[in-house]
Amino acid sequence: MGQRLSMATRKEITKKYAREYVSATRKEKGRLLDELVGVTGWSRANARRSIAVAAKRKGSARAVVRKPRSPTGCPTRCTPTVGAHLPARTVADGSQRPVSQIGLMLADFLGKYFI
Fold first, then answer.
1. What is the total count of domains within the chain?
2. HEC letters along 3-30
3. Has residue 75 been placed in a domain?
4. Taking the C-alpha atoms of 15, 20, 24 and 26 in order, what is their torsion angle to the nearest 10 degrees?
5. pLDDT by residue for the chain (115 residues), tens digit each?
6. Which of 14, 22, 58, 59 could form a disulfide with 54 if both were Cys (CB 3.0 to 4.6 A apart)?
7. Global pTM?
8. Is residue 73 a part of any domain in this protein?
9. Is residue 2 part of a domain?
10. Alpha helices in 23-112 (DSSP H)
11. Are the C-beta atoms of residues 17 and 55 closer than 8 Å to each other?
């Protein structure tokens, strides 16, 4: 492979091979994988995975339109504040005291490294 191929070109080539690969016999599949490895420079495992993905994809790789992600990573209905999509926590009356006692014991044990 003298020149490097762009990823879009590799995906188009893979789509072409995927159409043939689906209906090929086992021997032909091996030959098709060898050809794809020679053209793209991928390993056989990567070529096989790419063919499987290309066979599932409808249309060319350039025609696939992705949905944009929200900037906060949350679904669009939640507010941008951290943890807004989580339910509010409730603390039972006597549960806070044992936790603070454990914290004090750890502070004594760990000393200055306890933060």
1. 1
2. CCCCHHHHHHHHHHHHHHHHCCCHHHHH
3. no
4. -40
5. 446 888 888 888 898 999 999 999 999 999 999 999 999 889 999 999 999 988 887 766 566 676 776 666 655 555 555 555 555 555 555 555 666 667 777 777 776 665 5
6. 14
7. 0.50
8. no
9. no
10. 26-40, 44-56, 96-110
11. no
